[in-house]
Write a structure and sequence with these properties.
This protein is mainly alpha-helical. It contains seven helices and five strands; from the N terminus they run H-H-H-E-H-E-H-E-H-E-E-H. It has one domain: Rossmann fold, CATH 3.40.50.
Length: 189
């Protein structure tokens, strides 16, 4: 179920015998996880540091998650207020990951906010097969950093075992050389 749309996961739980509606399952899971995240976010090694480094370089970032808005807002609250330019959550899209709709929505909204972007100059960091599938199908450069479940070797454009010790330059190195702007700057999101 890692990385799947919550409606899909709730359906699997129903099929396994959970006697709640899809909406009740989603609400229960979201409320329980949000309560835990209010206390502490279980950051993956290097993730928080990399996000802060991107923020420090004024590189716009979006959080694209199949979690609902309530949980995404709580996670974002544990970072400086302008770390994420926007949040695209599972309750904002009609088709969840592995469909590329969430990534396309993020790309379109970021372009509207920060100006023209090219998909080859955007890096998506994902930890699940549905996530890397969605990001790759949207046309952005995809970095897989597996968490609970291993990722197939060819599932993402790039695979790293962890974000620990990674810098903005490491992300920039993933971009094709033609993604340099007229001023020579490389942009990642």
């Amino acid at each position: 179920l890692v990385g799947q749309a919550l409606t899909f996961s709730a359906g699997v739980l129903q099929a396994a015998g959970v006697k709640l509606s899809v909406r009740e399952i989603i609400d229960t899971l979201t409320e329980q996880v949000t309560a835990k995240v209010r206390e502490s976010v279980p950051w993956r090694p290097g993730a928080r540091e990399l996000l802060l480094a991107l923020r420090g370089r004024d590189i716009p970032c979006a959080l694209v998650t199949m979690s609902e808005q309530q949980l995404a807002v709580e996670v974002a609250r544990h970072l400086p207020g302008d770390t994420f330019e926007l949040l695209v959550t599972g309750d904002r899209v009609t088709r969840g990951k592995p469909d590329p709709e969430a990534y396309q929505t993020a790309f379109d909204e970021l372009t509207a906010r920060v100006g023209p972007l090219r998909k080859g100059a955007v890096v998506a960091i994902e930890d699940s097969l549905p996530g890397v599938t969605a990001a790759k199908a949207s046309g952005v450069v995809t970095l897989g950093v597996p968490h609970f479940v291993a990722l197939p070797p060819d599932s993402a454009d790039h695979l790293w075992p962890s974000l620990e010790g990674r810098q903005v330059e490491d992300l920039e190195s993933l971009l094709p050389s033609q993604t340099e702007s007229a001023s020579g700057d490389r942009r990642i999101t």
